[in-house]
Queue: 4 jobs
Job 1
Amino acid sequence: MTIANIALTPLVSLIAGVLILIMPRLLNYIVAIYLIIIGLIGLFPQMAM
């Protein structure tokens, strides 16, 4: 069973939004992790699904 990228993105966004509402300082970590992941996918496109 695989999860489509289209279905995964809104789910991750929803979870991140709820966590940011609960803990606003978490925003820094979420943005940093997102930027690192996007940067790694940009440098190594073969790692992307």
Job 2
Amino acid sequence: MSTKKGQSGEEHAAHYLQHRGYSILARNVRLGRGELDIIALRHELLIFVEVKAHKSRESALLALHPDKCSRLQSAAETWLSIHPDYSHLQCRFDLMILTPRIGLPRWVSPRIEHMEDIIR
């Protein structure tokens, strides 16, 4: 993510994941046609996390269109080819949606929704 809001969203998402037992392996990895926001490991499961910091849940979901999913899968395959030590692990694609808490000051953390296994 290139915007200040996006970078802040990724920081919140990474912090959220770490507090739930995920190990962050990499962030903001650009490969070919796609970018992987967060690559995490938890219980022998490799997770590619797409982070969407939007004003609404609906706009975040709309941003995850079929072409975006295809680019995520392509980037993940490329990452795995570069890091063969992880190729034996089961993989999953997650989506984290961060939305502002309406009516509260900007310094209040956003609402975080973690959706697991979004691409099959």
Job 3
Amino acid sequence: MYRKIIVPIAMDQLEHGEKTLGIAKTLLDPGGEIVLLNAVEDLNAYAQGYMIVDFPMEIIDASRKHAVATLKGLKEKHAINGRVETRVGSAASVINTVADEEGADLVIIASHRPGLIDYFIGSTASRVASHCQCTVLIDR
């Protein structure tokens, strides 16, 4: 069993995120904590050198607010003992950083079947599993 579990949830994969949240609840020690996490991609970081367009900060702020509201809803719906956190940055980097900062015992991350692009740049789940300092459970 685990005392602190990080459950990253992508806003476009809520069904899968709810499934991983259910797994986290079954693996959590009594009195343990689940951190529901969402990484909001910084589109400006990808645009540098490729486009002249500068994405307004309002887009990132709106994405964060939407993620917080959605994750709080999931927390209440599933009666989770824990908290919600969002950060801006690449998903794998954010997940690994939060896991380190929190001293997490486990990260449970949803993954899709790899497509061709994943063989070139890798999936978020594989980058988390490769670099995370704690146990990682990948749910397909």
Job 4
Amino acid sequence: MKKFIEEFKEFAVGGNLLDMAVGVIVGGAFSNIINSLVTDIFTPIIGMLLGSQTDFSNLKLGQIMIGNFINAVISFLITAFCLFTVVKAINKAKEKLVKAEEEAPAEEPEPSDEVKLLTTIAEELKKLNKKK
């Protein structure tokens, strides 16, 4: 149980929860944009192509509300395409970042105090040997 509590604490404090909350909020806002795109732009265009019917939600096949389903499919396809392009752009940016990090020359670590002291001693010994 202690391990479970520690894992939950790490999850809640470690940023995953914040990332998830931001994702939900942005996703909700993005969903509204996609719904408006479908309802206000694509559905009327499709309606003009098919005739005077601009809203599929009233389209029925018996009691089946096929129009709502068509709207949902269109909305899903647009959302999936938008998310695909965003993820693809993020992956491309990550690849460029990793490539840039790999190409950057690595800095040599600064020598420890002991190495500095030994180097100084060695230099002083060389000076003493040259004087003799």
